[in-house]
Amino acid sequence: MASVNSSTSKDQQSNVLKSIMMRSKSALVVIFLLSAMINIFVLNGSIYMMMVYDRALPSQNMATLMGLFAISAFIYVVQGYFEVLRSNMLSDVASKVENTAIPLALRSAHELAVRNNSAEQNNSPLRDMDQIRSFIAGPGPAALMDLPWILFFLGILSLLHIWLGVAALAGALVLVLLTLISERANKHSASAIADLTQKRARLIERKRRNAETVQSLGMRSRFATMFLDLNAGLSAKQTAVNESATVISTSSKTMRMFIQSVLLTVGAWLVINGQVSAGVIFASSILAGRALAPIDQAIAQWRNFSMARTSWTRLSQTLESHGEPEQRTLLPRPKGVLDVSGVSVVPPGMELPTLHNVSFACEAGSVVGVIGASAAGKSTLARALVGAWPLTSGTVRLDGAALDQWDCDRLGQHIGYLPQSVELIDGTVGQNIARFDPSASSEDIIRAAELAGVHNLVLHLPKGYETEVGEDGRNLSAGQRQRIGLARAIYKDPSFVVLDEPNSNLDPAGEQALGLSLINLRKIGSTAVIITHRQAVLRFATHILYLVDGKVADFGPRDEVLHRIKSQSNVQPMAAAPAAANSA
């Protein structure tokens, strides 16, 4: 039964974009009907021309001429209205598809960013969604929907005379051949151009974000060289594609004009031989122009179509790999009972795990200090505990429920996390502490700040809690960012808090505030895991987890573990730990 459900879910995920598109099925049917009417109305010009030459001029009847003109003018007005209506409906369909798919694309983009998979980041779901929307709302779909009507116009030309149809068909085949040549020539170039454009944009962004480092270390010329190399490759690709497109487009237009001249010649020959009337000459020229125009338009739009098709395929694969969010049972607020069993983690972009079969457990209200040498896997463990990085094996359970059993946003309300590198989001101090919760109250924000010991610090900022932190919190010092990040982590008294090197940028006042925060967390029954290199903070721990090369070397009550570590002659860096702990 489970396998059946899994198979069904897989099919739904792989067809997610198609199913979203089919939600506009009724609108698409109307659009196709409008396209049919527009193409039928195109006959208006040819029929009017024939009627003028074959009826109005021979009879020299002004009433006939004006009547034909009035009918033709009315049809042109209706045709124009239908074309505007079709264009507007395509824009509405594009908006509907985007509004439905964008939450899934946004979710996929977020997961890719969290996992830091650069290969997948090159194919951003949001950029793909923009490309798809732009194509649907543009002239491309109309050109594609007009293509099947080529056969209709060729049939009408054949009814006028078979040789007119044959001449137009030969021209159409030549234009189709040019389209296929264009597709073959640009098949891989569009994807390569998109990748190079994104690489160049990322390089510019990295230089901007690290402008101070680049300036102070004399790296500007190196970044300039890297940029020029990327830009040269991009320019070469774009030039090649543009030159190819120009050749194909010019050849197409020239061929279309030549075919119309051929049809005029064939028509004149038929008139001279008395096989058709004179009006057929001009009518066939108009019909041929209309018959070949969709091919010309398709060639002009082929690059956009190719890019949209690539984006559609790529986005479909991305949504399939991440799947649609499952509906989960809303679990009650956890108490903070933590159970880590057999956890192994391979960091994104790496092949080997940095955590190997890590297991430990603690009751609610515990404070676990995680120690170990650099590259022991401490920060990897922190990310795994809060669900930021996926587990290769094992489980992390909170109150008996694995993290993947929780709704992500709901679980986040009960978790506090302070990463090693604190980045605040562009906004005010208050917004950052409240995690940008629109319903946050001033009382909750101030309470979190007071528990983190940062309330007075915030009040001394230029605008207090309304102070703008700037992009990535650049308007604040590293210590200020870390203390505000701590307040954000303990906002609304989370049940489980993970602090990765929370005192790395703190002065003595900040360290004292951190200690008070840990005491407050224990008082309210929250479980805390603290990654640290500084031993002073261990005096607040109830348990110690000692990692060596990604494996658990020891775990247990603080004093017992520190005593065992001190007694091990091969672990010199931790010898000072007991003194710091016992001095508490």
Automatic annotation (TrEMBL):
Q: Which domain of life is it from?
A: Bacteria
Instruction: Tell me where in or outside the cell this protein is found.
Output: Cell membrane
Provide the transmembrane region boundaries: 27-50, 62-82, 135-156, 162-181, 262-287
NCBIfam families, per database record: type_I_sec_PrtD
Instruction: Please name the SMART domains in this protein's record.
Output: AAA (SM00382)
Domain ABC transporter span(s) in chain numbering: 338-574
What SUPFAM superfamilies is this protein classified in? ABC transporter transmembrane region (SSF90123), P-loop containing nucleoside triphosphate hydrolases (SSF52540)
Coiled coil (residue ranges)? none
Q: Does the keyword Transport apply?
A: no
Q: Which GO terms describe its molecular function?
A: ABC-type oligopeptide transporter activity; ATP binding; ATP hydrolysis activity
Chain ranges of the ABC transmembrane type-1 domain = 29-307
Gene Ontology cellular component annotations, sorted alphabetically: plasma membrane; type I protein secretion system complex
Q: Which UniProt keywords apply?
A: ATP-binding, Membrane, Nucleotide-binding, Transmembrane, Transmembrane helix
Membrane topology of this protein? Multi-pass membrane protein
Instruction: Tell me the Gene Ontology biological-process terms attached to this UniProt entry.
Output: protein secretion by the type I secretion system
Protein's name in the database: Type I secretion system permease/ATPase
Task: Name the predominant localization.
Answer: membrane
